[in-house]
Amino acid sequence: MNDEKQAAQANEVGKPAKKETIFSGMQPTGALHVGNLEGALRNWVRLQDEYWMYCCIVDWHALTAEFDKTDELKESIFQVAVDFLAGGLDPEKCAIFVQSEVKEHAELHLIFSMLISVPTLMRLPTYLEKKDTLDSYGFLGYPVLQAADICIYNAHKVPVGKDQAKHIWLANDLAKRFNYLYKKTLNEPEALFTEIPLILGADNRKMSKSYDNDLRLAFTAQETEKRIKSFYTDPQKIRKGDPGRPEQCPVYLLHRLYTPEAKAEIMPSCKSGELGCVECKRRLAKNLNAALEPIRERRTELVAQPDYVWDILRTGADRARQRARSVMEKVRQAMKTDYRKAAT
Q: Which of 15-29, 35-49, 231-245 has the lowest mean pLDDT?
């Protein structure tokens, strides 16, 4: 269902049509983990009821680091789509699609690349962080493509953590430059900052599949319990009876999300030494598995229906393409590069 039809239906039943658009994207890294769920997906599920929403699996972005692993992309895309749906995204409320299925992303990226200087890109945190391992033109221009991803839907807001502030600033700046040079055409997107809970993996680093320290939504209850048993804890708490420092323990950070009595019971019991790490992990595994059970059940159903999942991605791409084409027509008109129309 496209945005215009949804707006018409909303008006018919006396409800106000949603007025603002949000764009969100995630790389196809395969099955999502608890960090992805709590850091992004839960927030997207909440926002889909408040905004027009485009949820994109950004496969072109993945090529900056894994251009030699394209044979793995299809399965990774499928797994991300499954977790989007199992986690609560509703294809009737938001467009869920694959970036490369909407070629207008690339067209606007090319135009934006003419409006930005190389030194500006070289000062961005993402480039500085990985420049010693990634040195391609595509990696340098990654934030420009990201800006195009956002602006091709004329998005008003982008839900991100504060670590992405510079990239949203760049998208805003490129939209401003375009509007100044040509004609007011593009919304100048703003970050919709969300409080992202700190979630660490088994080794006390950021939860990531590349570190193999994560808790995947695709894990069974037994696999989840086994991984939690391997989690790093406070190095000063060697045995039960030793006072702990829960604020420095990745197990407690997860308790805050999945154990209602974390602050009232887990924290003081850990600090006093009454609660040992083995029991603490056992309780976390029980609570986390209970919370993830509905997602896992839905996930199992979706994995068994690959045609249904791919149909959702195709339908989402059709809807996204309709919006992107409309925006690109306005972009070409503003630039006076719609040559065929000008000739007639």
A: 15-29
- CA-nearest of 169, 160, 119, 158 to 140 is 119
pLDDT in tens, 192-241: 988 878 899 999 999 999 899 999 999 999 999 999 999 999 888 888 88
* E strand intervals along 4-156: 21-26, 52-57, 94-98
Q: What is the set of domains in the chain, with CATH numbers?
A: 3-199+305-343 (3.40.50.620), 219-300 (1.10.240.10)
Residue listed under structure tokens 């791919």 = 310
Helix axes 104-113, 165-181, angle to 10 degrees: 80
CA angle 7, 12, 15 (to 5 degrees): 70
Active site residue 281: no
Give the three-class secondary structure for 106: helix
* 157 has catalytic annotation: no
Across residues 140-149, what is the average pLDDT? 97
- Locus of tokens 């006072």: 243
pLDDT for 5: 53
Of 166, 176, 183, 206, which is the active-site residue? 206
- Do residues 10 and 17 lie in contact, with contact meaning Cβ atoms separated by under 8 Å? yes
- What secondary structure letter does DSSP report for 191? E
Judge whether 19 counts as a catalytic residue. Answer: no
Q: Which of 166, 176, 183, 209 is catalytic?
A: 209
| Contact present, 92 and 316 (Cβ < 8 Å) | no
The type of residue at 275 is: L
Residue 161 tokens, joined: 């953590």
Q: Which two tokens stand for residue 118?
A: 């190389």
